[in-house]
């Protein structure tokens, strides 16, 4: 016999069971229902369901067959269940015997498992943070968890996300799939003014339906305390899932399994709870200690998302649990958490009344969480950081003002230097012009000043082609003034001395001939040569 694929949906009046039987004959359907039992047979298919409530038989039952969809729909009405009390019973302290001081500690769904990690400690040490969970009581687990969170908290990382929150704001703007469903539910409630089952708002994909068919249907014997632990741990797991879905914007990655189990103390420390507030405190501490994005706004946003999912009903919760199951199943070390928690949650949640989940959402909504309650001194840290930031801002402003003053003074100094250089350059130009005029007016004075050291008895020497002779022009001027003429013979010095003197003059100065004296120099040269020839 084959178990057919089926869907269950419910409205205020009817329970609808859609069964897919593509290879069955229409004439061979057999349907049986009584109390909470429902049976369907159509060769080769057989389906048996045990419903959480009793089926009402009032003559309004009907069935239909759609050959195009290959589905047979049988609507039935189901009774509702009673209210659920969320108040925790207080019991007086009882002395524990020595034989019960170190019992094997339980964990898993409803604290129904034990001894799993005792034989697989090495293989599963990367999945959970607690060491030897089979021998660590709940109180010691909590102490170690709080110490580990305090040691892991990084003030620099927190302040970086606190001040540079552009990425955080972008994450907060993301709308996951349950946001649209929740908006539709609110609009429907405002229009009808009646609370109804909202399972029809949430649909399952074929892959999710295939996941559901692989689960084994079973019942869980939970006492009142264990039942509360199951509900509280569900909040803890959903908070971690909502954070992961939001920061990845619905795109799962290789870190998704790590994020979910790391942010949930239920999954990584096997923590147990006594109220909703301590769940929120624990989740807030871990968000600010472990993941990439550490901001208090993300804690509150995950809480808001969890409330919406719970208010949407068990179908929305089941859809989230199936997604978590898939993430853990694809992660090699985390699959054990499916066996300990998630698979049982997927089976158990289908039998839970959505009204209980709505009551749980109200309890979560009433929780008020502050930064001071997290025990990480966040307010003091933020105040100190803001004070440092204000001091740095004031210091930068002072530096900018002093820099502007320095720039202004340097520009004024450069302007004054430019004006001084302009005046001095004008003076230098005038001085150079006057010097050039003087040189033009008395070129012979320059020559005479160079010749002075080599003249005797105020006699002028004429330098011609390296030779030295008396300037006849000077002699003629002297004669015209009544002065006696000196001899036209060479100076009273020997030939070698004259040659030495000529060499010294060559190496010392080079005197250019003044204009207008070329003819005179030529005549003097000829006269000298004529006078020196007899001696040679």
Automatic annotation (TrEMBL):
Residues 474-491 have a biased composition (Polar residues). Residues 73-83 have a biased composition (Acidic residues). Belongs to the SHQ1 family. Residues 59-83, 406-451, 474-536 are annotated as: Disordered. Residues 364-398 form a coiled coil. Residues 1-102 form the CS domain. InterPro entries: CS_dom, HSP20-like_chaperone, Shq1, SHQ1-like_CS, Shq1_C. Gene3D superfamilies: 2.60.40.790. Residues 525-536 have a biased composition (Basic and acidic residues). GO terms for biological process: box H/ACA snoRNP assembly. This is Protein SHQ1 homolog. It comes from the Eukaryota. GO terms for cellular component: cytoplasm; nucleoplasm. GO terms for molecular function: unfolded protein binding. Keywords: Coiled coil.
């Amino acid at each position: 016999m084959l178990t057919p694929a089926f869907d269950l949906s419910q409205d205020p009046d009817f329970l609808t069971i859609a069964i897919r039987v593509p290879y069955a004959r229409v004439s061979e359907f057999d349907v049986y229902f009584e109390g909470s039992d429902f049976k369907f047979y159509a060769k080769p298919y057989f389906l048996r369901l045990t419903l959480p409530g009793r089926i009402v038989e009032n003559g309004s039952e009907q069935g239909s067959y759609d050959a195009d969809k290959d589905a047979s729909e049988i609507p039935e009405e189901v009774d509702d269940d009673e209210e659920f009390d969320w108040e925790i019973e207080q019991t007086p302290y009882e002395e524990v015997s020595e034989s019960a001081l170190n019992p094997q500690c339980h964990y898993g769904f409803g604290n129904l498992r034990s001894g799993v990690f005792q034989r697989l400690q090495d293989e599963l040490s990367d999945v959970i943070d607690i060491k030897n969970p089979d021998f660590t009581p709940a109180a010691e687990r909590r102490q170690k968890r709080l110490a580990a969170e305090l040691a892991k908290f990084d003030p620099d990382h927190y302040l970086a996300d606190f001040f540079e929150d552009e990425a955080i704001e972008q994450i907060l703007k993301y709308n996951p799939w349950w946001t649209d469903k929740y908006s539709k539910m609110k609009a429907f409630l405002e229009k009808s003014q009646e609370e109804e089952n909202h399972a029809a708002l949430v649909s399952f994909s074929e892959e999710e339906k295939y996941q559901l068919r692989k689960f084994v249907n079973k019942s869980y014997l939970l006492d009142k305390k264990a039942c509360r632990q199951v509900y509280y741990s569900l909040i803890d797991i959903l908070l971690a899932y909502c954070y992961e879905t939001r920061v990845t914007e619905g795109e799962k990655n290789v870190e998704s399994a790590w994020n979910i189990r790391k942010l949930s103390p239920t999954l990584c420390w096997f923590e147990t709870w006594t109220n909703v507030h301590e769940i929120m405190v624990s989740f807030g501490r871990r968000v600010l200690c472990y993941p990439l994005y550490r901001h208090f706004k993300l804690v509150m946003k995950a809480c808001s998302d969890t409330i919406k999912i719970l208010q949407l009903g068990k179908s929305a919760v089941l859809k989230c649990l199936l997604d978590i199951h898939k993430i853990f199943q694809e992660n090699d070390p985390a699959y054990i958490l499916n066996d300990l928690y998630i698979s049982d949650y997927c089976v158990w949640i289908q039998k839970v009344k959505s009204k209980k989940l709505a009551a749980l959402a109200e309890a979560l909504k009433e929780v008020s969480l502050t930064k001071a309650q997290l025990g990480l001194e966040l307010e003091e840290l933020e105040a100190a950081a803001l004070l440092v930031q204000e001091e740095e801002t004031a210091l930068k402003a002072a530096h900018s003002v002093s820099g502007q003053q320095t720039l202004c003074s340097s520009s004024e100094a450069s302007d004054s230097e430019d004006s001084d250089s302009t005046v001095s350059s004008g003076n230098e130009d005038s001085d150079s012009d006057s010097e050039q005029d003087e040189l033009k007016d008395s070129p012979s004075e320059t020559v005479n000043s160079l010749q002075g050291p080599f003249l005797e008895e105020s006699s002028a020497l004429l330098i011609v082609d390296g030779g030295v002779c008396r300037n006849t022009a000077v002699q003629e001027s002297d004669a015209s003034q009544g002065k006696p003429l000196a001899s036209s013979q060479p100076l009273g010095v020997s030939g070698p001395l004259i040659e030495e003197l000529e060499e010294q003059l060559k190496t010392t100065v080079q005197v250019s001939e003044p204009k207008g004296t070329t003819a005179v120099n030529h005549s003097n040269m000829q006269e000298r040569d004529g006078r020196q020839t007899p001696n040679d």
